[in-house]
Amino acid sequence: MLKYVLTFLISMVPIVELRGGVPFGITMGIKWYYALPICMIGNMIPVPFIFFFARRILEWGKDKKVTGKFFTWCLEKGEKGGQKLQEKAGKGLFIALLLFVGIPLPGTGAWTGTLAASFLNMDFKKSVIAVICGVLLAGIIMTVLSLAGVAAFTAAK
Q1: Could you give the CA distance from residue 55 to residue 8 in angstroms, rounded to a whole number?
Q2: What local confidence, expressed as pLDDT, does residue 157 receive?
Q3: Do residues 18 and 40 make contact, with C-beta atoms less than 8 angstroms apart?
Q4: Residues 6 or more apart from 135 whose CB is under 8 A from it?
Q5: What mean pLDDT do residues 113-130 have?
């Protein structure tokens, strides 16, 4: 039971998200068809909170002594992510957000994508649907890579 809870919690952590949760769960012996939905749910739970509150909290904390540097970094990351999406996407912002979240590269994911969507004042419902689809895409990619990695490691023994 602990491995399921840890897999779920890892998927909620910014930066790590589902990209770390899926490989963790699979290497802990969780079947991929359980690990993937557990990680997707864990990755999606913070999304509404990020969309509605993160920007406000970051704006509030950017001048504070303890949180200032980190919050400023987060704000800059969200603004840059939003600008990149807007530049590349034009009217195809939904697809751009989906791909931004879905292609598992450093600095992309549900947290950054949702923050970027809030900076771009995207519609909440469309943003969430794009992020869900992106999380599913990232989950499929990470599941395939994790299964291939486990198979390669097992074969090397």
Answers
A1: 25
A2: 64
A3: yes
A4: 18, 40, 43, 44, 101, 102, 110
A5: 92
